[in-house]
Amino acid sequence: MKVKAGDCYGAESEWASLTVVISTPSNSPPTTPSISGPTLGYTGVPYIYSTSATDPDEDLVQYRFYWDDGTYSEWTSLVPSGRPASQSHTWTSAGIYEVIAQAKDKHGATSLWSISWPVVISTPTTNDDSNDKEVGVEWVSDFPGEEHDRLSDLAPEDFYVGLGNLGWTQRFDHGYGYSHQIYQDDVYSASERHFEKPENGGWDYNYIDAVDFAWFQDHGDENCIVFASDTDGDGEYGGAVYWHEAEWGDGDLEWIVLSACEVLSDKYSTSPPWSPYPASSSVFDRWGYPVFKGLHAILSFKSISFTCASLGNYLVEYMTGEKGPYPIIEAWYRATLETECSGVWAAYLAEWHDEDDYLPGYGLVGPDANPPIVMAYNYWQIP
Length: 383
Hints:
Elements: E1 2-3, E2 16-17, E3 34-36, E4 40-42, E5 47-52, E6 61-66, E7 85-89, E8 95-105, E9 117-122, E10 134-140, H1 147-150, H2 154-165, E11 169-176, E12 181-184, E13 187-188, E14 213-217, E15 219-220, E16 224-226, E17 240-242, E18 255-259, H3 283-288, E19 297-301, H4 311-319, H5 328-339, E20 345-351, E21 375-381
Parallel strand pairs: 4-9, 10-11, 10-14, 14-18, 18-19
Antiparallel strand pairs: 1-2, 3-5, 5-7, 6-8, 8-9, 11-12, 12-13, 15-16, 16-17, 19-20, 20-21
Helix pairs in contact: 2-4, 4-5
């Protein structure tokens, strides 16, 4: 730019130069984001991943993921610097995927791609209704204190071995206890995810609902069954599976023993203050209609129980030719009378068409009802 001055008589100065520098404000891109989320999963199930990054200029940021299957997520909405954002993805093929994320500030400056987050996706076990003799057990008995707790792994183990000796396919045996431990499929002890429905991040379709007869051994109450460690599928209610996280029978499962205290209690149930679910005053509204999705029966306890090591063996014997054969529910009745401590209340909850089920090969088995038509609940006290 040049400028000169002139007066009223026409005299002019020399030209003077003026240099003007126009610059664009500096903008730094966000830092490389980090990722968190599941590392194991199954095809067809959505999983949620989170990422976050900071912006040196405190600009708003947004994120996207590359799922390593040829697809990218959409950019998330803009959020404050440092605040995480999440996206969901479902893989359709089994494999190992390296998920990465990228951040972008409101001016369009992008970060480097993140370090990859490996995810192993497997294909769920297909329900095999042509095989009606599959068994699986999960248990914990490494409890401090009472000897009957510390040796309670023997009941599910005898049940598992007993049916296996009768030709049943033994699908899984997960447990950790005082007397011995079982290590299988990279799992110690019972796992919450194996009992939870997919909507809660669970894998019941590959475990509990992939067998016909299952046994769970640990603690519990009228709202939940309790586990020794937090293996929750969606990060909520760690260390327990609440009735609203379970839907059983839409796969193979017909019968399940919940060898835990007070699961089938008829007492009034109050909802924990942190639970989004309302209180339920009825066992039918807890472990009944919400849980039964083709399931035939839950065999459990109305009161505190003192799990006896011989319960599993006696149940098998009463269901088969050793002491029977009796229908499954009557076999549970007889086995608890013979093994449980005086004063304990045992119980069952069943779809009424299935109250007279026999073990396959020993008599008739009722139909799968989803939803159940009428529920039957009964209990008895050990003299």
